[in-house]
Design a protein that fits this description.
Elements: H1 2-19, H2 47-61, H3 71-74, H4 78-88
């Protein structure tokens, strides 16, 4: 079970790098629990990045985020995104 969660996190990291075209960033440089969207984040992601990533996750993993504003909590880190994808795929 732990291996599948790690594999999912790796997939999400790769998706972040490719879908957002993050040049010079390798998936393994993204920490599982580091904030994705914060001024301190080395990724430099903004609200447009969030929309692009949301679309990429929905398309890739065949999941849907609710339109009630709750999606923001799922975008805190790779771990929270993986937890959402796992729970929404069940």
């Amino acid at each position: 079970m732990q291996d599948s969660q790690q594999a999912l996190k790796q997939q999400i990291k790769e998706l972040i790098v490719t879908s957002l075209r993050l040049e010079g960033v390798k998936p393994e440089q993204i920490g599982d629990t580091e904030p994705l969207f914060s001024p301190e984040s080395p990724l430099g992601l903004d609200s447009l990045s969030a929309l692009e990533l949301l679309s990429a996750i929905e398309y890739t993993f065949k999941v849907r985020f609710e339109n009630d504003g709750s999606a923001k909590q799922h975008f805190e880190s790779v771990t929270t995104l993986a937890d959402f994808v796992k729970s929404a795929s069940v």
